[in-house]
Amino acid sequence: MTELDTMSGIKKDSNISRLREIGIIFPLFFFGLIIAIRNPYFVTWENIRYILLDASILNIVAIGEMMVILTGGIDLSVGSNLALTGMIVSMLYRDLPNLPVILAPILGIIIGGICGAINGLFVAKGRVIPIIATLSTMYIFRGLVYIISQGKWVNAHEMPEGYKLLTRVEVFGIPILIIYAFIVFLLFYYILNYKSIGRSIYAVGNNPQSAVYIGIDKTKVLFLVYLISGILSGLSGVLYTSRFASAESSAAVGFELSAISAVVIGGAKTTGGSGKIGGVVLGVLLLTMIVNGLNIMRISPFYKLALQGLMFLTAIVIDSLIAERTQKRYRRRS
Amino acid sequence: MKLKIKITWEIILLILIILVFVISSILSPYFLDIVNLLDNTTNFMEKGLISLAMAYIIISGNIDISVASNMGMTSAFMGVLHRAGTNIWICVLIGLLIATLGGFLNGYLIVRFRLPAIAITLGTYALYRGIAYILLQDTAVGIESESFMYLGQGYIGNTPIPFSLVVYIIFAFIFGFILHKTTLGRYIYATGNNEQACKFSGIPVEKIKIILFTLIGFMSGLGTIFLTSRLSSIRPDIGSGLELEVIATVVLGGVSILGGSGNMIGVVLSLFLLGYLTYSLNLLNIPSQVITIILGLLLVSTILISNFIEQRRKLVKS
């Protein structure tokens, strides 16, 4: 932590984060307008519903990723975790079609949680730096998917109907997938803002040293965030395979980049300690909308990755510029 | 005390290499063959070239996870130009330039916006690979130039010594010399140990960062050229996952992931250890996914072990 960070931290909670969230709404409308002018289909109910459905799974993963980023870490293994859990659970349902469907999300949470706990052990107990720990597990989990599935898919007709219905039911006309995402959002909104563990996560990211001095168990908090990230990725793995009615070994490759981008675009600082869950939701919406817009405007899907990288870089550069400016103002005043 | 431990680390690496050789020759009769062993080095020379520069980056307390994507971007540019009928050697020069620029951009953004290297290179990890996909979509470009193929597949005269191995050894000497015998080398260690203190003592930390990232860009370009020459085809997903192997090589070579310590001999030894381990696993028909898992486990356990040793040492001292 440099002096720069602690200085900007003083004013952080007052203006900037609010300004930053409004800052995402701008491009959200701007890009929305451009896409809508190019193709009016974009603003039909059918398409908006589709965007929200697409955003739901990313939203669940991104919230987990946000917890990790809040502590100043990073979790690159979420995409592989999602694929691994999705594969194991759908293979289980392929072989045991009579298993109650209600067990699927629970299994996802357990398997994803185990993967997350492995990351947590490496980072919190083993003090391996997060990017190396999760880069390794990203390849380890992905390798395991190939080994377990032997490169084969679980296809739609092999999945029990109930498993596919898990994400296809509607409650009062609202697709249940969106409701899942909303519940996860509410739960973590509450935890982050009103529970002491939530505040501890911010504290560890803001200044690990002083967090320890005021009696926060840093090891526990670090372990917990990777566990949460794993649990949410695992849950998403089940939802993902259910929604697309297939499980393949290369599912969700690059999903970690989307999740991290959404979190960073949503205003969380990569060095940790600041970021709002509402911003993450907006970041997810912006990303999903742009990807959807590319499809609608019939722009090659190959542009997606580069665009994501560009948006990610723009977001962190803008954040840095804002911090620089506030710091200057702060210096002048003192 | 410190010197003693450094020596032990390299001896451990040497013992591991011997172990890999002994076990592999018992398990496979094809392993211990000098021509094969020399020939096989071509498979990991591009990793070797990049790991030399990655060692600088990690010693200086930074990290670059965009190297493999930079290779993809470079390769894609070369492919597009070559398909349009450009002479392969001009493609090579432009490729080197683009890779170097890619590295420079990383360094510039890190320094200009005072952002952590992890954040910037994660962004360019997506951006560069994305550019590769935009340029080549899902096509591949074949190369049929004998002289170009020599780079990655050729041998020195009539000997079984591959050309790429010689290039690697020359670069390893240069990188080792700069790191251990020049002021720049000392600055790299100093930056990794305490960046703040370096700034206060007048070391041009920002300039060094830009130089190092530009350098790793150039080395990625060189690696790309050897890789495309060996594969004699250009694809947008070329080298994906290579960043893990390169970082694993450096960390296994005894370079602390937190910066400030490590040396070149270790990095060279660990390259051959990992390279021959992979070769022997290939001979035993172990699928590449399993090899990747082994690499990942190796990387994490190396760091875990060195953290454990560090902790022990602290406990003994206090």
UniProtKB/TrEMBL annotation, chain A:
This protein's UniProt keywords: Cell membrane, Membrane, Transmembrane, Transmembrane helix
InterPro entries reported for this sequence: ABC_transp_permease
Membrane topology listed for this record: Multi-pass membrane protein
Subcellular location: Cell membrane
Transmembrane segments: 21-42, 48-69, 99-121, 128-149, 169-192, 221-239, 251-268, 280-299, 305-323
Gene Ontology MF term list: transmembrane transporter activity
Pfam families tied to this protein: BPD_transp_2
Major localization class: membrane
Protein name per UniProt: ABC transporter permease
Species this chain originates from: Dictyoglomus thermophilum
TrEMBL record, chain B:
Localisation per UniProt entry: Cell membrane
Keywords on record: Cell inner membrane, Cell membrane, Membrane, Transmembrane, Transmembrane helix, Transport
Gene Ontology MF annotations: transmembrane transporter activity
Segments passing through the bilayer: 7-28, 48-67, 88-111, 117-136, 157-179, 210-229, 250-277, 289-309
Top-level division of the source organism's lineage: Bacteria
InterPro entries in alphabetical order: ABC_transp_permease (IPR001851)
Topological relation to the membrane, as annotated: Multi-pass membrane protein
Quaternary state and interactors: The complex is composed of two ATP-binding proteins (LsrA), two transmembrane proteins (LsrC and LsrD) and a solute-binding protein (LsrB).
Task of the protein: Part of the ABC transporter complex LsrABCD involved in autoinducer 2 (AI-2) import. Probably responsible for the translocation of the substrate across the membrane.
Protein known as: Autoinducer 2 import system permease protein LsrD
Organism expressing this protein natively: Dictyoglomus thermophilum
